[in-house]
Amino acid sequence: MSNSKRYLFLLMTGLLLAFSPGCTQSDTQNAPRAAGNPRARTVSLPNFVSLAKDLQPAVVSISAVISASDSEHQEGSLREPGEGMGDLFGSPLPEGLSPQRSLGSGFVIDAQGVILTNAHVIEGAKKITVRLSDKREYEADVVGKDPHIDIALIKIAPSESLPTLKLGNSDALEVGEWVMAVGSPFGLDSSVSSGIVSAKGRHLGDAYDRPIQTDANLNPGNSGGPLINLEGEVVGVSKAVVSQGGGNLGIGFATPINLIREVLPELQSRGKVTRAWAGLAVQEITPALAETLGLEKPAGALVAGIVRGGPAERGGVKIGDVITELDGKKVTDALELPLWISRMPIDKRVPLKIRRERQEIRLDLTVAALPEEPLRSLAGKSG
Which of 15-29, 113-127, 331-345 has the lowest mean pLDDT? Predict the structure, then answer.
């Protein structure tokens, strides 16, 4: 073989070896991994073992004896865990029996026996029994309730200090973040389930609540239990599942703990929460409505109803007005308006900027205290 042919043979052999699967280990490690290779990306799942061990002792089961009339709930696709549970193994309670029993969950926020739960768990209760993780039972008294965000405080008198849970920051939650739910689904104490935050700030009917959506399993009996982040902090209170048959379909909701933090001091001191109110109902602006009203984009809050003699009427607001600015803050989402108003001091004078018949008008209204009895005649989201 001539020298030129021998050189060409050695060169081709070297190239084949360099790119063959049998190349050196260092070459293999440096080469990009093929798509679909299970080793191409290592994902570590969270370990909930230590979280469960540390937090379960502070979570309690709640049993409330209620009358048959108080235990009835309207039918619908949104079902609250803890509703008429019946027998643990599937036999429903016979209709007409009184009293009946509502089961739910809660968790200790004060070592002296203050427990946070859902308002609907203890609604109409004649007797409330709290069972701790060590099976001790205590009768509880109601400290206060806030039905708008479906929370309640109850208190027991334990013989010793109880373990508590730390309240976290629900505003810092990210969609896709891991969370763990603890409670008593179907009366099964200290059960845990895990999932992720599916969405934040959902609107489910009440103007003052912005639930967290999660795919962590929530079932009847989970109501009032904590939703916990990986730092072991409570970020929400489980309240409802979307279901056609009462079981979990991977869509559950929890009240954000930051909304609860805002009202806890008043709930503890007064037993109820007073919110500011403007006496109007609003609805969202759709693109079609924006075009009809001469708006550049679908933003603002369309006034759909006004309470006669209420703050909005006294301030000159009319049905059909579009509120574009409230107290110097632009209104981009109509459903946020009632929440903004509710946080204002009672009797505060609030400047409004509205659009009426394609003209901008400035008004002032003085907010009042939200009436305790709901105003069912108003359409839209009232604030």
Answer: 15-29
Which element (helix H / strand E) includes 276? strand 276-277
> Of the listed 223, 238, 243, 342, which one is catalytic?
223
The pLDDT of residue 172 is above 80? yes
pLDDT-based confidence at residue 374 (cuts at 50, 70, 90): low
Query: Does residue 141 carry a catalytic annotation?
Result: no
b/e sequence 118-137, b meaning 16+ C-beta within 10 Å: bbbbbbbbeebbbbbbeeee
Report which of 146, 123, 128 is spatially closest to residue 61, judged by C-alpha positions.
128
Is position 150 annotated as part of the catalytic site? Answer: yes
Instruction: Determine which one of 120, 190, 194, 342 is catalytic.
Output: 120
Q: Which two tokens stand for residue 132?
A: 């701790």
- The answer to whether 71 and 124 are in contact (CB under 8 A) is yes
Do 233 and 226 form a contact (C-beta atoms < 8 A)? no
Does the structure show a pLDDT above 70 at 95? no
Among residues 63, 102, 148, 150, the one annotated as catalytic is 150
Task: Give the model's confidence band at 29: pLDDT under 50 very low, under 70 low, under 90 confident, else very high.
Answer: very low
How far CA 71 is from CA of 46, 82, 297, 345, in Å, comes to 39, 10, 46, 36
223 catalytic residue (yes or no) = yes
